[in-house]
Amino acid sequence: MPTTLPPPERLIDALAEQIAPQITPDCALVGIHTGGVWIMDALAERLGHDIPRAVLDIAFYRDDFSRIGLHPETKPSHIPFEVEDRRILLLDDVLFTGRTIRAAMNLLFDYGRPATIRLAVLVDRGGRELPVCADFVGTRLDLPADEHISLEKNEAQGLHFVMKRRA
Amino acid sequence: MSANPQLTDDGRLRHLLTLEGLPARILTQILDTAASFLTVSEAERDVKKVPLLRGKAIFNIFFENSTRTRTTFEIAAKRLSADVVNLNINASSQSKGETLLDTVANLSAMQADMFIVRHAAAGASHLIARHVAPHIHVINAGDGRCAHPTQGLLDMFTLRHYKGAFHNLRVAIVGDVLHSRVARSQIHALTTLGCPEVRVVAPKTLLPRDVENLGVHVFHKMSEGIRDVDAVLMLRLQNERMRGSRLPSAGEYYKHWGLTPDKLKLAKPDAIVMHPGPMNRGVEIDSAVADGMQSVILSQVTFGIAVRMAVMSLLAGSGATGAQS
What we know:
heterodimer, A: alpha/beta, Rossmann fold, 4 helices, B: alpha/beta, five-stranded parallel β-sheet, four-stranded parallel β-sheet, 11 helices, 9 strands
């Protein structure tokens, strides 16, 4: 098992290479807050800024509301185009249980019926609890369930991964 | 046991009974959450609701008439996918002699998750909150002259939406402060959120005696009270709550205290005008102002739904065992 991950920017390069041939005029990029939105903006740098973009916050669609309550910092979702018949490329930083993706798909369908939804993630870390798989993957990593990995962003380091063991 | 009966032991909002004593952190959290809920009703969505409170039973218990408040609570609950039951109690059990707590106990037995209560008596929702089972949440939708916290919150949301922040605002609350639960909630919220100058502008007969203790500046002349303010928060003249003769006549009141275009010119040029509704046109507010460019009265109604969605979801989520504060 690798203990260090490639830098996120290099994984985004790899994703952009896979995605580029698939981009059609009816495509749109949809980033899930917060990591997915950073990846979306980085992909737009590589694929072109004319692809429509949207941001999703899935707080109102999570399946653990009765367990943990409302997420403390919700952000508005903003989809500035018709979802109906659109080819959606859904973006997230890390694919784990699949529950976030289930929530994001439910949210998208409340806006309209997309033609297709494809999923691109920077890291697939395994551990799925739902029948979800990514169409485009930056890298795969086999992590124990109590290991937490997330994409972070700051001025000094730009995008970088943070790994920590859950308490 | 938490010192504030509205909060859980770990400081989350369990009931919303009054804004008095609630920390700024909670008020800000409600306003921030409401901003996210605003998008649920936007035109781009085919389905203008989210599944957050699916399967929850919310009872609107109104012991006092209200159309707007009850309707906005109902819409808010439905946009959260909850099941809503509306009860106008003055027309049913109370006339048969059932007590307030009996009514609530019966509704609890119907598997209620949340009560939204309006009552003419101050403290009614506090009483209910003290007696409900731990998983049931109570929202005060107006009790007597005491508090109307969701109205106060939606007014704060509206102010922040148009003015950006509270720390540089001069706000005038104008009219029947004495009978107004809205004014009390506004004053508590404004002072908690750091508004440096809250004015109340009213005739002496329509001001509570202790009003200065709430941290407000008192004005008895409209021409002085609304000069250079950023926002004018009008209050409804509450004839139905008045006993005896506090006022000469509606016409007299309009002459001195009605917000006309001429008086509004004394405020800052970009001042906004708010009113909790229902308006007495030609009594506390002139139609030219109510329907004018500076009026944000209809936005208040729209924002009220998002604010109530935020309150309901935060309350419903506060009992979660693994909750994050």
